[in-house]
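Quick one: structure for this chain?
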Amino acid sequence: MLEYMKFMIGGYIGWETIEISVINEKYIVKHQKALWADWSVFEDVDLIDWNTKLENVHINKWRKEYVNTGILDGTQWNLEYKVKNKRCRHIYGSNAYPENFDDFMQVLGELYKIIDVQAFWEGDEVE
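Got it. Here's what it folds into:
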């Protein structure tokens, strides 16, 4: 079971961050659209099914680093996560990705349903 995850992706034009914490079996999702932007915080989110989908991506089998040295400017990403009773892992990529990175992004994309709906109800503009 996931205890903590922070995923950052971006490059020259900007960065986006999603952070998930589990405290007393309740999920807290934080989202930051840019490094200088305020965090949006969504507490007590039901992510039990989402956590199962994340486990099925098997990020625990990813290497520590994915780098394509042939591209000087592009997209970098960082994933930091901790699973219960395991050590925290840090994975980095620069213009290179694990084979099933699209599956990971699809699972991560499900969080935007929560983020966008919550922002809508708080009166924020949804892009």
